[in-house]
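Here is one such protein, fold included:

. . .
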Amino acid sequence: MSCNGCRVLRKGCSENCMLRQCIEWMEDPQAQAHATVFVAKFYGRAGLLSFINAVSETQRPALFQSLLFEAVGRTINPVNGATGLLLAGNWKVCQAAVETVLSGRALEPLPEYSRRGVHHVKQQRREERYFSKYSNRKRQALLVSDHVDGDDERPDLDLSLKASSELRRDDHDRAATPSSVEVSETSTFSRSGSSSADYTTNDLEGTKLLRLFV
């Protein structure tokens, strides 16, 4: 009976199958099949068999695990691979990706390494630069407006022009109410008039008296 690895690769299998020795550490038959397909697609069928054939039987399970983790790490992190994830402290991300492969689900690169993610990051950086420039301009505009408002704070001299109707009403009130000068002149004239009248009357009376004695 062929092993799960040879079955998915459609190759003959024997009791001494080197691929069987590589996947025995996985208990689930479906996980064995998914892992074999993924590694074979990444390295190629001939490349996978070449790697396995280059080591002894005792080292083949460790070799297959190493190839699996490296293929998964290179898929989700095309730049640094599994080594970069390990050095960055993100080994749990690689382990979670391996579990994804064993369950038969597809892998996608991390957002910072995918084209969509790179485009999204660039767009986000453009928006951040735009909003930072906009906020700086708005801040400068507010500073300028505050400076102008401070310069415009001057005493109100009430230099507004009055309407013609108000001017006419003021002239009418001024004509109706006599000024102090006119009042003084009137009073002075009346006094002078009365004194002159008194003087004339006295003169006449004095003249009459003189004529009587004559």
In short: The chain has ten helices and no strands.
